[in-house]
Amino acid sequence: MSIRGKVVIITGGSSGIGKALAIELVKQGAKVVINGRREQALAEAAREIDSTNTQVAYVAGDISNPEVAKRLISEGLTRFERIDTLVNNAGIYLGKPFTDYTAEEFETVLSTNVAGFFYVTQYAAAEMLKTGAGHIINITAGVAEQPIKAAPSVLAALTKGGLTSATKSLAIEFADKGIRVNAVAPGVIKTPMHPVEIHDFLSKLHPMGRMGEVQEIVHAILYLESADFVTGEVLHVDGGQSAGHW
Fold first, then answer.
1. What value does the CA radius of gyration of the chain take, rounded to a whole number of Å?
2. Element (H, E) at 27
3. Angle at 84 between CA 82 and CA 88, to 5 degrees
4. SMART domains under this entry (predicted)?
5. pLDDT band per the 50, 70, 90 thresholds, residue 145
6. Structural domain boundaries of the chain?
7. CATH topology of domain 7-188+213-237
8. Average pLDDT for residues 36-49, to the nearest whole number?
9. Can you state the angle between helices 16-27 and 214-226, rounded to 10 degrees?
10. What is the pLDDT of residue 1?
C-alpha cells in the first residue's frame, strides 16, 4: 500500500525515532502531525521534516494531558482533513533497581507511557471508526517481555508491557471495524537518549552485539503500515533479545 497522501500522527516527534519516521513519511508523500513537549525543538524539527511547511504540522505539549491529545487529533483534521495512522512513539525509559525508584519517577513514567497512549489513541480511534479505516502503531520495548539481569527496568515492564497487551486487545476489538493495531518492540536504539560513552555496554545487551539504528525501527513501522493483513502483531526489532537467554 502506498504511503502517499496518508495523514500520520506521531507522538514524540521532535527527535530520534519519531523525527526520522516523519522525515521518511514526508519523503514518500505523506502528511504528518508531530507532538513533543518542547515547542522550540518541535518547530525546528518541523522545518527539518518539511521546509515548505505544506506536509507537516505540530502541536506542542505533554501528550499525557487529554487536552493536548485532543488538540493533536484536531490539528490533523483541521489541517489535513483526516487521520489515517497514529504512531504512539512518545515514551520514557528509566532503568534502575526496583527499590531505587521514587514516587515521582513512577508517576512520570506511568503518565507518559500509559496516559500518553490512552487519550490520544481514544481520540484517534473515534475518528477512525467514523471512516471505517485506520492503523494504530505502538512503540513498546523488548525488555518489557525479555528481562535482562544487567539492565533492571521494571517500569518498562509495567508500562510498555501494558502497551503490548493493549495492542492485542485493541486489535481484536477493532479487527472487524477496519482498524489495525500493531506494535514495534525495539531493543536499545542509537538515539540522543543514550550517551555515546555507554554504547559499548548497551551493545552487549543484544545477542547480535550491537545497538539498533533508528532507520531499522522506521523500516519496521513502514512494513506494518503496508501489511494490510497484519493486526495484533508485536514486531521485535531487538537484535535477538526476545529470542531467549544468551
1. 17
2. helix 16-27
3. 115
4. PKS_KR
5. confident
6. 7-188+213-237
7. Rossmann fold (3.40.50)
8. 96
9. 50
10. 62
